[in-house]
Amino acid sequence: MARRPLPRILSSGSASITRSREIARTAADSATDVLHPLITILRGLRLLAVSGRQKWAATPKERRGPKLFLAAACVLAVALVPYGPILALITVMGAAAWKGRERTPVQTGPDEAESTRLRALYEALVPYFSVSEDPDPLFAHGGDWEKAFDGYTFDGDGRLTRLQVSYPAYFTDGEAAARSRIEQLLHTKSGRGREYRFDWDEEANRLVMTVPAPLSTSIAAQRFVTAPGETVLGFTDPDAVRRTVPVRDGDTTVDASPVVWRTGNRSTEPHLLAVGQPGSGTTTLIRSIAVQALQQGDVLVIDGSGTGEYGTLTGRTGVLAVESGLGGALATLEWAAHETERRLIFTNRARQGGHPVPEDVKRPLWILLDRPAVLGHLAAADGRTDPQELLQVPLRHGRAAGVTVVLADQFDALETLTETVRTHTRARVVLGPASREQITAVLGAEPNTTPPPEVPAGRGTRAWAPDRSCASRSRRPRTRTTTPRAMPSGGRSSMCCRSGRAPPRNRPRCPKDRPTPPRMPLPMPVTTRTRRRFPSPWRRWPRSPARSSRRPGRRRRSPRGEPERRDVVRAGSGPGGRLPARRRPRTPAPLRPRSCAVRRPPRPRRTAPAPPPPRAAPPPRRPPGRPP
Predict the structure, then answer these.
(1) Among 119, 304, 433, 559, who pairs with 374 as Cys (CB 3.0-4.6 Å)?
(2) Which residues are known binding-site members for ATP?
(3) Per-residue H/E/C for 408-475
(4) Domains located in the chain, CATH noted
(5) Compositionally biased, Basic residues: which spans (predicted)?
């Protein structure tokens, strides 16, 4: 059965309604375009009125009267000025048009994709930050994530770059295992392939996760601007330290945040241990330290690997020796031990005698040892002394003697390090890729960043002994790789022996230029009896000439009958024999009271006697028989 068509009046009604809607919309758009300036001015006037009302409400009541009087005076002045009302009207309309202009709305919250990511991160943290006994949990399934996340920042790709999390007070943030679980979860949910830093604020129950910027890799090894006793190991994030140094980065000079290691007799970590994988940059770090140490000290370099990486240091001023063989390394370390003892002896004698420390003792001495485990295996095979045993004296007494020891080795050789080396190398550096357990085993503290996916050579983590709780990331400066010089047979190279020149007087001699000095005991304290040279300041009258007169050339004797000793201290015999006598520094004469001061006439100056007058020549003798 065919369907009957609708009446014409019903079929044409919907079309007319649609046409009328289109006409009304077009008219509204045209009116909006025509009246757009008026709408903008009205919107601006409304905003100006709201702003004025808020300022009037914020004004104290005692100030409203003067402000109202000032406004009335301004209106009266404008009314009396020619063309004042017209100019005031134009000014108000311009301000209203500027205030009511259309602005691009600023996005204040996350978009849909970002909200989804934050919601998933919140749901993943619920099992770790909630307990069943909590009546009002901060983290709950289906809860409000805006209460837990105080702040967040996304990059252009929609990935988190900063997140601030508030956690309940009953979370065990003091346990390293609990913190590690949270850090691993945030690292996984926020996206792999990046490095994250976690800052725990246990007092405020807050965790801040950030993505640090990559460290610079273009800064080369150079002489940095530092104070005496400071060495730059690398560079770190700008917010990690409160100091910058000017460095050359290519053709420009920039300010970088350094990792400064302080040495000397007041340092709490006088010796350094660097550990890394093969090719991680430990040798380059030692070369950078050697370049900086040569400015004010002497350097002994021992290359256990024997690859000739330190051949470029041979022949430089201040490099005492560059050894790569077992025999040369043992001789050099034995000399370094005796040199440490000699410095201690001379420092002790100088302090007892009240004299300044000699310059050759105050000059710093650096012992740079690379791969000591290799030399230890060679010494064990030959039945000789382990080189690490010869480092006991420099490691234990190096801070007082001005001797600094720097060691570098690999992770697989950590078990071969002696207990002395582990105890006294309080400054630690880990370079190259390493797991969290390896970094904790070397530094004694967990790092505050996650391991990056790709670790370039020279990138690592450092920690000082007083602050083991903070192990921050750093990067050492790169050095230029050059072809080492040819080394003589036996793998030994020494500046003092190859150049044919004698070492300077103010530096210790090379171990090959002189025999090893014997061990010397520390001297005993020397006691002397000092003759009083000045009368008592409270003596009213000076002694009579008869009592104070002494025969010239006769020594005064003490009550015991012994001749009195002068202010001279005879030091014990040293390596070079008996030292010359050293006089004590004279103390200034005490001042007399004014009432008993005695003025003595000044002594006449001694002048050279006048030469005798020349004798007159005798008259010539006449020959006999000749008349005068």
Answers:
(1) 304
(2) 276-283
(3) EEEHHHHHHCCHHHHHHCCEEEEECCCCHHHHHHHHCCCECECCCCCCCCCEEEEECCCCCCCEEEEE
(4) 28-101 (no CATH), 113-210 (no CATH), 230-475 (3.40.50.300)
(5) 548-558
